[in-house]
Amino acid sequence: MPPLASKIYSILILSEYLSFNEVLTLTKASKSSVSNQINFLINEGRVEFIYKDNKRKRYFKTKEDYLKKTLEIHQKKIQKETDILSKIIDYNKNRGFDGELVSIFKNHLLNEKENLEQTIYKLSQTGNNILDT
User: Structural domain of residue 125, as residue ranges?
Assistant: First the structure.
């Protein structure tokens, strides 16, 4: 995630709804940069907005399931990486390739993926609606 998007995301996690101008003031970045990064966060499914009092002014906040989305995005990245490592191991199997290091790293990623799955499950069992979609 780009640095400014991370900053905006962090601010919104710690806040209720914020207007564009409030985000602009807190980040001290240009209007176009803030606008681009907010749109990036909206497209990623991490941020949503509402209109208050039927005005054009948008107010932004993180989606209720932001924690789940973050963990799922990380999970997908791990899956892609393990798929690549499996292909490397398969491709080099008959070439005298010592795949021990690759296998160690792949096992680490698989353990991390399992840990993420357990964390998502445990959090969903707390009854907290943060993970509800």
Answer: 66-131
pLDDT recorded at residue 133: 43
Helix (H) or strand (E) holding 71: helix 66-91
Provide the CATH number for the domain around residue 10. Answer: 1.10.10.10
Contact between 119 and 67 (Cβ < 8 Å): no
Q: What is the DSSP letter of 16?
A: S
Percent of the chain at pLDDT > 90 equals: 47
Helix (H) or strand (E) holding 59: strand 58-62
Q: Are residues 37 and 80 in the same domain?
A: no
Spatial contact of 65 and 46, defined as CB atoms under 8 Å apart: no
Write the pLDDT tens digit of every residue in 59-73. 999 987 777 778 888
If asked whether residues 11 and 53 sit together in one domain, one would say yes
DSSP readout, 28-56?
A: T--HHHHHHHHHHHHHTTSEEEEESTT-S
